[in-house]
Amino acid sequence: MIRDTARRLNPFSRRRRAREAARGHRRDVPIAFDMFDQLRDVHELKAARKLAGIYHKGQRKSWDGKKVLPALIAKHGGIQLDADKREAIQALFAIILWGELAAWKISAELAVQLEPLEAKLAATSQAHDEARHFYTMYDYLSEIGEVPTTLGPATTRLLEDVVRTDDLVKKLVGMQMMVEPMALTLFSLMRKAEVEPVLSELLTLYERDEARHVALGVLHLPKLLTNMSFAEATSLWTWEFREYWAQFEMLKEMEPHFTTLGIPVREVIRIGRQKQIRANQMLMEELGYDLKIFDVFMRFFQAKAEWDFPEPGADSRKRTRARQALDAALQGVGNIPINLTEVAV
């Protein structure tokens, strides 16, 4: 108690306390009366303007799920689904439903913890979006049957790992750089598959909102990553590796439902990887240098994807599969054209 009191009273501990708050280790985040006192260079000011743009664009693009969903149902004459597809959609979009709740909780927490005004605005906008996504998906699933109240163990573990961590960097990496890109993948593939027209039109709105959310991680993470110690960086990359692994376990749980809807899991992995690579390339552009560890991760998980989800009809011998996995790793991630401004401002 004495030591803690002394640290609070010591003026030289201000920087340390600010760093702890930014890292998410303090729950009692005080009012930041000095939030406008920080000095920023030209690059930081540019990123701040883009973060503020996320909030203002979110206001302009906001939509009312209580009006949109009934209008779409009326437009398409109701929701028509075969029993097997209904079950598959319920299972897949249970992940979206409860994932949106997790994202709502995380973004609300970020809105409290993030100190710069512009980042706080962006997180607040995301919390508003996620709340709308959650109640609208609940309403949609209620229209087609019973709303699922459980998820597979791997999916539950992945979401809870991101929600429960007290580390702000891990929350941003887990949600904005990993979970959001995978959600965008599911939205895109389901929309293009045209399994159910009401859902397809609804997901267009979800995609537009979620694209802005990735930009929060891209624009604010550099500020946090540049101040990490070696131990903190090691902890982050270890945690991130475990979460990438968990995504593959989640895909194994979801594979039967993708198959029912005519969506190959390999396509889910391919598009999801592209979106994650794109998000990380955007992050590296903001950082001004390459994250070599990310290339290692992607090479490893490209090999794992080839091993866990081989092409239909491919040679099943382990030696052949091992060679195919190695070839996938050697290909690297390549480069995906990016345009951050179209989602951030």
Would you give an account of this structure?
- The chain is an all-alpha fold.
- It has a single domain, classed as Ribonucleotide Reductase, subunit A (Orthogonal Bundle), CATH 1.10.620.20.
- It has helices at residues 2-9, 14-23, 42-60, 65-75, 83-113, 117-144, 153-164, 168-193, 197-225, 230-260, 265-287, 292-308, 318-331, 341-344.
- Helix 3 packs antiparallel against helix 9 (197-225).
- The chain starts with a helix and ends with a helix.
Précis, in short:
76% of the residues lie in helices and 0% in strands.
Total number of helices: 14
State the CATH superfamily name.
Answer: Ribonucleotide Reductase, subunit A
Task: State the major sheet.
Answer: none
- Give a count of the beta strands, DSSP E runs of length 2 or more: 0
According to CATH, what is the topology? Ribonucleotide Reductase, subunit A
- Low-pLDDT sequence parts: 1-26, 335-345
Main CATH class: Mainly Alpha
The CATH architecture comes to Orthogonal Bundle
Relative helix content: over 70%
Anisotropy-based shape:
globular
Assign the structural class, choosing from mainly alpha, mainly beta, alpha/beta, alpha+beta, or little secondary structure: mainly alpha
User: Strand fraction band?
Assistant: under 5%
On the 0 to 100 scale, the average pLDDT is 80
| N-end to C-end Cα span | 46 Å
> What's the helix-strand series?
HHHHHHHHHHHHHH
Number of domains: 1
- The radius of gyration over CA amounts to 21 Å
